[in-house]
């Protein structure tokens, strides 16, 4: 999971605003589909969730992230792709928490593939009924991730805390509150019918 979690940080674009969606043609019904920012020739499903565009500002505020700070990234890998966005937290606790970042990566790999790759740092869980993996890599200090199943693949939510004095926080604090954040964002990912599409991870 470490390489995927760091991917958005190393490839993010240097702009503060997400790319604009294509305008609708006048006098037509607005389309419910959008060409994704990244495509590949892998034959895998198109990534239909853009974390920079599809999370409403008021929901980001509720989750204590700054809706004005968005760092888009595109990561086509040939045989699969990831479409990302980075966010900065707004909650400040003096001497405890002054900076934290959230990277959201939407990818057209399966949850089973993610388990096969990082099962050693993953625990099976669910978020709002979706199959998910809680991922805690002891080598990635102050970082915790949750990968959830989608109709096109997965979305990985990876949060990193930056303590005021650069210290390593206790491991049991790395994931505190992340499940609640993902539960807030989950309804905006896609229209996956949970009861029909969530097969257990094999």
Walkthrough of the structure:
With 202 residues, the protein is α+β, with helices and mostly antiparallel strands. It has a domain at 51-191. Helices cover 18% and strands 29% of the residues. The protein has helices spanning 2-11, 57-62, 111-118, 178-185, 194-197; strands spanning 65-76, 81-89, 99-107, 122-127, 130-135, 143-149, 154-162. A seven-stranded antiparallel β-sheet has the order 1-2-3-7-6-5-4, sandwiched between helices. The longest helix has 10 residues, at 2-11. It is globular, with a radius of gyration of 17 Å. The two termini are 18 Å apart.
Helix and strand layout, with pairings?
Blueprint: H1 2-11, H2 57-62, E1 65-76, E2 81-89, E3 99-107, H3 111-118, E4 122-127, E5 130-135, E6 143-149, E7 154-162, H4 178-185, H5 194-197
Antiparallel strand pairs: 1-2, 2-3, 3-7, 4-5, 5-6, 6-7
Mean pLDDT, to the nearest integer, reads: 79
**What is the CA-CA span between the terminal residues?**
18 Å
Helix-strand pattern:
HHEEEHEEEEHH
Which percent band covers the strand fraction? 25-35%
Order the strands across the largest sheet as they lie in space: 1-2-3-7-6-5-4
Main sheet attributes: strand count, strand direction, barrel closure: 7 strands, antiparallel
* Rg, Cα atoms, Å: 17 Å
Discrete helix count? 5
Low-confidence stretches: 1-32, 192-202
- Count the beta strands: 7
Q: What class would the helix/strand composition place it in?
A: alpha+beta
Shape descriptor reads globular
What percentage of residues falls in helices of 4 or more residues?
A: 10-25%
């Amino acid at each position: 999971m470490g390489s995927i979690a760091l991917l958005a940080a190393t490839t993010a674009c240097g702009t503060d605003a997400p790319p604009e969606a294509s305008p609708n043609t006048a006098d037509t019904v607005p389309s419910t589909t959008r060409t994704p920012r990244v495509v590949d020739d892998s034959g895998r499903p198109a990534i239909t969730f853009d974390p920079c565009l599809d999370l409403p500002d008021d929901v980001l505020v509720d989750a204590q992230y700054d809706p004005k700070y968005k760092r888009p990234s595109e990561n086509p890998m040939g045989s699969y792709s990831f479409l990302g966005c980075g966010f900065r937290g707004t909650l400040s606790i003096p001497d405890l928490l002054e900076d934290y970042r959230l990277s959201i990566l939407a990818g057209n790999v399966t949850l089973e593939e993610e388990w096969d790759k990082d099962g050693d740092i993953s625990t099976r869980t669910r978020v709002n009924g979706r199959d998910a993996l809680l991922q805690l890599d002891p080598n990635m200090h102050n970082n915790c991730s949750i990968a959830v199943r989608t109709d096109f693949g997965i979305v990985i939510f990876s949060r990193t805390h930056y303590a005021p004095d650069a210290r390593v926080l206790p491991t049991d604090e790395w994931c505190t509150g992340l499940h609640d954040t993902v539960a807030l964002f989950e309804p905006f990912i896609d229209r996956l019918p949970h009861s029909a599409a969530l097969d257990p991870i094999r």
